[in-house]
Specification:
The protein has 386 residues and is of the alpha+beta class. The chain contains twelve helices and 14 strands. Strands 1, 2, 3, 4, 5, 6, 7, 8 and 9 form a nine-stranded antiparallel beta sheet that branches. A three-stranded antiparallel beta sheet has the order 10-12-11. A hairpin with a 2-residue loop joins strand 2 and strand 3.
Length: 386
């Protein structure tokens, strides 16, 4: 606390207001002081505390003396605090409320919240080090007309600084939304481009070599689904979910074949949204569309296992075929865990476990649940003669 000095509180000519917060108490180390529930002002050069009842009671701390900050969250019957650690005060420091202190830090106790924003602004001010920048020459300031000169001291100067900061913030937000709109427009252009390339490939099958066709198709796959089903194009309700189900069946048929004919709904959600780009699906829309796959007679179906695992599977890959393949693998390997089976058939561990459970239910496997984990064996009780 001995780094603080008495101040008349007006801002300097090259000093700007950064943030202010009411209801703040100062601690000398861990000890309470008489400076309670005051207005804490952060500028580009100093940290000031002002008594709201006595405007002349103002103490200040120069920011170059601050070494680092530490944020302390609020607890039961305790307010949030910010620890300000300081270096040794120079000998030329003006007189202050405390002549000497055993502590090298002070606590700022925030009774009316606002500590998070103040901490962020404090860190930013220390990083920028505006006090090192040269002040505006007096000659330049004297040349400005009295009509255009802004008052930089007192309440009026603080209010104008805050208005300018809010105006700059609104401008930054507007520019950010403009950039987002440009990004969306660019994504739509890329979708149109992919559709054009796809049509050219289809119309000029004879004029384009097979290698070029494969190369173009790889580019199209990297762009994702060229014309995704959206509520804007297909409305809402049952019609939207029906068209979405057709899209899912069309785009998932090949990935399902590559991963053994079955994919968990979680993996489906990630894969489809990655392919759709900006037109993301909600989990509810995806689930409602999957429930319509069977009613529409599509080659992809929704299945819920007894354990609650939800998957999509190809109709061509029946459960009987999966059980038969799993039984053969058990006979070949003598025993398997879910992790080992997942590596053999290139599916997730969850789906591999469900395959083993399904094989066990029809009598094709036996389990051994020990301290080493769950392992399945061929069911020789049914397949081998006694």
């Amino acid at each position: 606390m001995d780094r603080f000095y008495w101040s008349d509180s007006p801002l300097k000519s090259d000093e700007s207001l950064v943030f202010q917060q009411t209801g703040v108490r100062l601690y000398d180390g861990d000890k309470k002081t008489k400076f309670d529930r005051g207005l804490l002002i952060l500028t580009t050069h100093r940290l000031l505390w002002r008594d709201p009842k006595d405007q002349t009671c103002t103490v200040a701390l120069d920011l170059p003396l601050v070494v680092f900050l530490e944020e302390k969250p609020s607890g039961f019957a305790k307010s949030a605090k910010i620890s300000v650690y300081m270096s040794v005060a120079p000998s030329s420091k003006p007189p202050g409320p405390v002549t000497s202190s055993v502590y090298n830090f002070v606590l700022l106790s925030f009774r009316e919240a606002g500590e998070t924003q103040f901490f962020r602004s404090f860190q930013e001010a220390l990083t920028q080090k505006r006090w090192l920048q040269s002040s505006i020459p007096v000659q330049v300031a004297a040349q400005s007309s009295i009509q255009n000169r802004q008052i930089r001291t007192g309440i009026t100067g603080i209010e104008r600084k805050m208005q300018a900061k809010n105006k700059q913030m609104e401008q930054n937000i507007s520019e950010a939304f403009e950039d987002l709109s440009k990004l969306i427009d660019k994504a739509k252009e890329m979708v149109d481009l992919s559709r054009t390339i796809s049509n050219k490939i289809r119309d000029k099958q004879g004029a384009i070599t097979e290698d070029e066709t494969i190369k173009f198709k790889s580019y199209l796959l990297s762009l994702g689904i060229p014309d995704p089903v959206t509520r804007e194009t297909h409305g809402s309700g049952a019609m939207y979910h029906m068209e979405l189900a057709k899209e899912l069946s069309r785009v998932l048929e090949k990935p399902l074949q590559e991963c053994g004919g079955m994919m968990s709904l979680t993996d489906v959600y990630c894969w489809v949204n990655r392919a759709r780009g900006m037109e993301l699906l909600s989990p509810d829309d995806l689930l409602n569309a999957c429930k319509m796959l069977e009613a529409l007679g599509l080659p992809v179906r929704l299945k819920i296992f007894d354990s609650g695992v939800v998957v999509l599977h190809l109709l061509s890959h029946s459960e009987e075929e999966i059980i038969l393949d799993t039984t053969k693998l058990l006979e070949e390997k003598k025993s398997l865990t879910a992790d080992e089976l997942s590596q053999l058939v290139a599916v997730s561990v969850v789906l591999a476990r469900e395959r083993l459970f399904a094989t066990e239910r029809v009598g094709g496997a036996c389990r051994d649940d020990s301290t080493q984990g769950l392992r399945f064996y061929p069911n020789w009780f049914l397949t081998r003669p006694v």
